[in-house]
Amino acid sequence: MTEFAERVQRVKPSFTLEMTSRAAELRAQGVDVINFSAGQPDFNTPENIREAAKTAMDNGETKYTAGSGTIELRQAVCTKLKRENQLEVSPERVLISNGEKQSLYLACQTLFQSGDEVLIFKPYWVSFPEFVTLSDATPILIDTDSKNNFEPDFENLKSKITDKVKGIIINSPSNPTGSVWSDEIIINLLGLAKENSWTVISDECYERLVFEGEFTSAQKLSDDHHIGANIITCMSMSKTYAMTGWRIGYAFGEKSIIKAMGKIQGQATSCANAIGQAASVEALIGDQSTVEMMIGKFRERRDLMVSLLNELPGITCDTPGGAFYAFPDFSAYIGKSFRGEKIDDSFVLSDVILNEAKVVTVPGDGFGAPGHIRFSYPLAKNVIREGILRVKKVLEQLN
Ligand SMILES: Cc1ncc(COP(=O)(O)O)c(C=O)c1O
């Protein structure tokens, strides 16, 4: 038997991808599955973006590109950052990667090592602790409260600070909660990071999917309030432009950090997919009307999802300000039984819902949030209604 490197033992598999695979397997078996687990828009990539990819292929843009990304795409990122985020960034401070997931991974590989600690807030996106673990550093998980919009409590946060802390990962709008942190909270966090010389990794993957008010990038808050925090911001083409399968994301920040991240990327994957890069130029600087259309649809579906969830007996679901996830509290059902099987936690509850109702959800325990279940709602409204009705019927059988 081959002996694996110790890091294989240390890292946990992505169980959100596992849930998505389970949904796909059941569907392939002909089961009528409703999938609330997918972290992606149900829309196809907009036509102008698909056309740009076809043109790029026909023009022979099918070769390796510069390791840090084509100059056209890095320039387009800068144009978008100025237009959407009011940020002045030059192309040498931008790195294009194979999805934002790679940007985040590279940032952790570049900044952290054995003996370091990195602060992560619960509920967290499943990959954050694993990125930190893979860098040999230790993730320090910090509780937040749903009653406070899952925003950090500074007393609690300060109690976790040691001189080993080198960085902090933030994610607003958040996966899994959909919560959008206030500017004030982020400004305070940036101030604390500056005071303690931590690097902030700001995952702004859902920055355009904000339903009320304006989203302000952490970098802009730092600039406007003269905080001078060291921030690596990571953004994605996936969610905003329905491009999850194209695998293009990007990071921007201090030039030397971006260069170091590019050095690792160059040896790991050379460069991001050339055709995806060409398509991303069109996505960022071309017509944005389909983005507005998709945001409008997500808002309607959010409202429907939240109202249906709140109608379920014993369930409370706050209205998330962004992303496309609802994160209701199912703790009233933890401890009950289903046909003699005790529901010990959200993993068991999610499993019962899957087996009985053929509805795929993601258990909150996996995000560090016991009692909660994540529902992704980029689905047609009739599918959302049918899915929640099925969940209701299962809940009625618990005692
Ligand atoms: C919070 C968060 N960050 C990053 C990513 C990764 O996005 P990408 O598809 O660009 O790798 C995801 C994808 O689900 C996410 O939810």
Structure description:
By secondary structure, the protein is an alpha/beta fold. The protein folds into 2 domains: 6-31 and 290-396, Aspartate Aminotransferase, domain 1; 62-285, 3-Layer(aba) Sandwich (Aspartate Aminotransferase, domain 2), CATH 3.40.640.10. Helices cover 42% and strands 13% of the residues. The protein has 14 helices and 14 strands. It has helices at residues 6-10, 15-28, 47-58, 71-85, 100-111, 127-134, 154-158, 183-195, 218-224, 255-268, 274-285, 289-311, 346-357, 381-396, and strands at residues 34-35, 94-97, 117-121, 138-142, 165-170, 199-203, 230-236, 249-252, 325-326, 337-338, 341-342, 359-360, 362-363, 373-376. The strands form 4 sheets. The protein has a 7-stranded mixed β-sheet, with helices on both faces. β10 (337-338) and β11 (341-342) form a beta hairpin. α3 packs across α11 (274-285), α4 packs parallel to α11 (274-285) and α5 (100-111) crosses α10. It is globular. The termini are far apart. The mean pLDDT is 95. It binds pyridoxal-5'-phosphate. The site of pyridoxal-5'-phosphate has 13 residues, from α5.
| Oligomer class | single chain
Which hetero ligands occur in this complex? pyridoxal-5'-phosphate
| Beta-strand percentage range | 5-15%
Q: Which class do the helix and strand fractions yield?
A: alpha/beta
Specify the CATH homologous superfamily of the largest domain.
Answer: Type I PLP-dependent aspartate aminotransferase-like (Major domain)
Query: How would you characterize the largest beta sheet?
Result: 7 strands, mixed
Give the helices and strands as they follow along the chain.
Answer: HHEHHEHEHEHEHEHEEHHHEEEHEEEH
Helical stretch tally? 14
